[in-house]
Amino acid sequence: MPISATMAPKTDLKRSLTIAGHRTSLSLEPEFWDALKHAADKDNKSLASLVGEIDASRDGRNLSSAIRVWILARLQASHS
User: Fold this and answer.
1) Residue 3 has pLDDT above 80, yes or no
2) Which pTM does this prediction carry?
């Protein structure tokens, strides 16, 4: 079954942030960057501040995965 244009994989976007005093690079799909920025804006936090909170509670996951899981959990909580 061919992949439609809407299902085609998109290129991850890499961004650098300063978290806990050190620079780090994150690679996420554009949709996750958009969701993360929306969450930061809604919570009146900077993107770096929100990512720092996620980083502090990630329990061994890599940071990009922890962000995806955090976004999923937030979406699930808002629908329950």
Assistant:
1) no
2) 0.84
